[in-house]
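Illustration: Cell division protein FtsA.
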Amino acid sequence: MNEYIIGIDIGSSKICAAAGKADRYGRIQIMGITSANCSGVKKGIVVDIDSTSEAIKKCIDSLERMVDTKIKEAYVCIPGGMCELIWNKGVVAVGSEDREIRENDVKRVLKASKIITIPSDKEIVGVIPQQYIIDGYDKIKEPIGMSGLRLEVDAQIILAPSTVVNNLLKSISKAGVKLLGMVFQPLAIAEVALKEEETQRGVAVVDVGEQSIDIYIYEGGNLASIDTISLGGNAITNDISLCLKLPFSEAEKLKIKYGSVGEELSGCDSPIEVNVDYNDKVNVDYFMLKQIIEARVEELLYLIDQKMKCSSFYEKVSGIVLVGGGLALIKGIEELSKSILKKPVRIGAPEYIGAASPLYTAAVGVVKDAIDSIKDKSVMIDTRKENENNDREWTLKQDQKESGNNSGIISKIKEFFTDFF
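Result:
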């Protein structure tokens, strides 16, 4: 696996792209990551294909310079806020004569789970298998290689508006990038920001973007619910701009550089000099700026708290993980969030050198999901080869018994691993 895997996250204000690969030990390395401003997406929905494609192209060009290779293919994440989850079941008979479940059986049962009635304006963009059931035995995560007569799956079907998906695909195609696959955003975030123990115990991921807040609740290892609030980090910037009479772009810079909440010491006692016009500068009082930011951040946190309490899974949430660039980058946000949400709060970010920012969580998650999928397919192919080798080895040993030539199984295993590595 020497080629780079590219993951793209198309957000409301920025497009993030990451390039990664797996080393010889199977560990994932992020080799390049970048972002570009985008004005063609509103609340996760493409409203201007030309503007969005230009931003994608700019982002990919920057990533190409980082990894020194031409990028023609990529994976993209589908925003979770616009999607809907539907539970359904699929059932098939195991096709092989020896009753061993193979990859084709899993594909057939997942296809069977997609047989549902959906609205004309929506389409199926993915399937999340929750558990497999073999001859009545449930809670099976990986059925390939097991034996049985009847294979079932409990799955979540992901529905998305057809228009939204088509416009997203057109933007990517117009940027000159071939789409290899789509990754559901909540799953991409979970790949790099959550621990398996958290998803089993119950955790809420709060993805605060520029124009919307998506709340994903995990319970029992599965994605249990999705909620959206039509307000995001731009509300903070807008308040700074209006209250201090500053251009929106300068207000955004102030928020990113000086944004803090709570009792955290700033170390900024002197007024902040800000460019208002070409040659016009004004001084901004830091404590006034902090009061403006705190007021809006508290409102957003209370909205998140109300939305979470409306969920039937709220009592099962043992912690909250903040991702995205809307709130997670503000200093002191963890302590303030704990005091308002009344639950443990932490910032979720990828644990990779150069990509350890909540802003890049989804893009890095797409890369990891794609690499893991490719690795799983490779393992299945290699396992199949190993089984074939074992069959040939058994025949060879039976033939050699009469001649007294006993080569032994250890040498065969050594040969296999020598070829593999």
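Reading the tokens back as a structure: The first strand starts at residue 5 and ends at 10.
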